[in-house]
Amino acid sequence: MGDANERRFSYWFVFPAVMLVIVFRIVPLLWGAYLSLTNYNGISRAYFVGLDNYAAIMRDNGFQAAIVNTLILIATLPIWILIPMILAILIHQGVPGGGCSAASISSRRCSRA
User: Fold this and answer.
1) What are phi and psi of 48, to 5 degrees?
2) Range of the domain at 26
3) Does a structural domain hold residue 53?
4) Distance separating alpha carbons of residues 38 and 81, to the nearest angstrom
5) Where are the beta strands (DSSP E) in the chain?
6) What value does the mean pLDDT take over residues 67-72?
7) Do 65 and 57 form a contact (C-beta atoms < 8 A)?
8) How many domains does the chain have?
9) What share of residues in the chain are helix, strand, coil (percent, to 5)?
10) How confident is the model at residue 102 (pLDDT cuts 50, 70, 90)?
11) Residue 101 located in a structural domain
12) Neighbours of 40 (CB within 10 A)
């Protein structure tokens, strides 16, 4: 009998967190999905246009350029992470010349205004 009461009481502790997730995550997600399928501009009445908004954005040159730039960033990101990490590991291991490279890296950063 005590376990059932404790379980029911514990739901009251979880309830606020669940409500926050619903209000601030689920509702905006569903509202945004609904608005993306309409021609709503914030003033006039929303009319359902289906996937026309998505077809229009696929034809937009600015959107296509943004997709290309994003793909380039994703493709080169490992390089931008690996090179500094390798340099940091080499400096940390005490490789000959590591102190000079650490000094040159930090001095270059300090000299930028």
Assistant:
1) -70, 125
2) 1-59
3) yes
4) 41
5) none
6) 97
7) no
8) 1
9) 80, 0, 20
10) low
11) no
12) 15
